[in-house]
Design a protein that fits this description.
Chain B: It comes from Pontivivens nitratireducens. Chain B: Its main location: membrane. Chain B: It is a multi-pass membrane protein. Chain B: The chain crosses the membrane at residues 9-30, 117-140, 152-176, 196-216, 259-283, 303-329. The structure holds two protein chains of two kinds. In chain A, α2 packs across α13, α3 (35-57) crosses α13 and α4 packs across α11 (225-248). Chain A has helices spanning 3-18, 23-33, 35-57, 89-124, 126-140, 144-163, 165-179, 183-197, 200-207, 212-220, 225-248, 260-268, 276-303. Chain A is mostly helical. The two termini of chain A are 37 Å apart. Chain A has a domain at 96-261 and 285-308: MetI-like fold, CATH 1.10.3720.10. Chain B has a domain at 111-329: MetI-like fold (Orthogonal Bundle). In chain B, 75% of the residues lie in helices and 0% in strands. Chain B has helices at 2-29, 44-53, 60-84, 105-140, 145-159, 162-176, 193-230, 233-240, 245-283, 288-297, 301-329. The longest helix of chain B has 39 residues, at 245-283. Classes of the chains: A mainly alpha, B mainly alpha. At the A-B interface, α5, α6, α11, α12 and α13 of A face α1, α5, α6, α9 and α10 of B.
Chain lengths: 310, 336
Amino acid sequence: MSDQDRIFAQTVVDEVEERPRTLLRDVWSQFTAHRGAMAGLAVFLVIVLGVSFGPFIHTIDPTYSDFRARNQGMSLAHPMGTDNLGRDMFAQVLQGGRVSLLVGVTAMAIAMFFGTLVGVLAGYFRRLDGILMRVTDLFLALPILPLLLVIIMLFRDTLRKAFGPEAGIFLLIVFIIGITSWMQTARIVRGDVLALKEREFVLAARSIGTPAHRIILRHVLPNVLSPIMVSATLGIATAIITESALSFLGLGFPSDFPTWGRLLFDGANFMTLTPSRVIWPGLMLSLTVLSVNYVGDGLRDALDPHIRGR
Amino acid sequence: MFAFTIRRLLFAIPTLLAISFIIFAILDLAPSDPTGNLPLTISPEVRAQIRSSLGLDEPFPIRYLLWLKQFFINEPLNLIEGWTGWTLGDGERMRVTSWATRSPVVDLIIERMPQTLWVVGMSQVIAIVIAVPIGVISAYKQYSWFDQIGTFVSMVGFSIPTFFTGLVFIVLFSVHLQWFPSIYDTNHVIDSWDSFVFQIKQMIMPTMVLALATAAQLSRYMRASMLDNLQQDYVRTARAKGLTERVVVMIHVLRNSMIPVVTVIALNIPTIFGGAIITEQIFRVNGIGQLLIIGIQGADIPLVQTLTFIFAVLIVLFNLIADVLYGILDPRIRYE
């Protein structure tokens, strides 16, 4: 064996030993094999980076109205045209994307918090199971969209007065979307916790006197993370759609603080004149939701031990 | 099965009562005043009179019970009277009246029902007709180009919200091509072939928008369910005893794969009514969804309460129907 061969063999061994197979790496390699998920992740990252840093490059103020340039088509100065008040659409779409994404992520986080809390409590403590699951069933039977509309109509003005026009409507929408979309997560988490509770390592932990809250945080929660991650991803998509539906019905964000849904709603009246006002926000919205759904699909496959390794 | 149905029906009653309480409480405890929109020149005494004429000076529990009585006893009795022509009791009942129009809410809803039912019903039928063949072929030829395209298109259809497809349809088909009208004309009377064609034309866009969204979801379920069934032992047996491929797939597998899909269709129907709120708003169909939006914008609380509660009843009812259907279609399911 020559020196070169020996060095080569050594590097191979080093590489193998340096990179032990972990669960995370397995999941990642399965995820990268899912073409749709990778494409979705790429598109989603581009959109997130675009709306985060885009306004620093395209520096037109989204609320500045240039009355000499109303209802314009696409041009170099206004890549997506202008609206009926001469505001730049591209700047508005970027600004709206920030709000839409922020609403999606925050509402999802609230839903995940409640879903996990209810699911873990119901699965772990038998005494709470009955009542918590009845509450979950009750929430599932509520007509969500009409109820959201009603709540917004009733509480909008009060919250606007309390927190200011923008923060008030943001808090209201995020909170009510979060509080009406935790049920599926709670059910999945409860099922998983019920199965986990009977496993030996939980029994071992309990037998050495670990208190319940520490068993839950240390042993139960890390093991139910994967279904939570999947529903979190898909939850972003549903929250974004729900928010835009509310804004589209005129009961969401105001025009001077628009989201993609609100831009669609405002553009709908002018769509014969400037169809681009409808097309661009809608396209961005659909692309975001599509990419997030693909990421969720890939994540579900990657985290499912029955599929992984096949 | 019968005992199960009865028990589920009885179980639905407390659920519905709880939901009705939640809806009533949200609307009632909200910090908005129904007389707030009246002109400021109205004196406080008159304002108080208006409030009491709207039934607002009673305490909360009494108003809730009165509303329950109106909704569960008076209105059904009225409906029965209207259908059969009998007179039950004295015929003079308190009815749930809209604050905006001062007419009974139920009459408003019945007036709007046919438009919604036509659009929603047709869209469901079209969705099933599109989704089932796509799901079957996708699963049978898994990973073929048809499957790749089919799953991609259904993912896209599943992700694009109906308010965007609706607007794109209008831009494309009414503004540019001018094939279909963008506004649904409810006063249109069908009395000749031409008017029938016009009715079809104005229904195409709203129904297709709803149908495509539903079909995207259904075809995903159909494909997954077919894939599950194609790997079952009974399929191998059927092939082994020499049945043609056509019989194996179209009769054995398809029938079994339809079981979960049928329940999904049943569970979907209430959400379709919710989705129709948006579609009706885009195409100006004056159905139930638009009535709800008008009610919300005008702060017409009795109307909104009743409509929201009807949506809740639909959800509970179709959950029940889905469970019962599942038990009837799948003999392995035994409810005890």
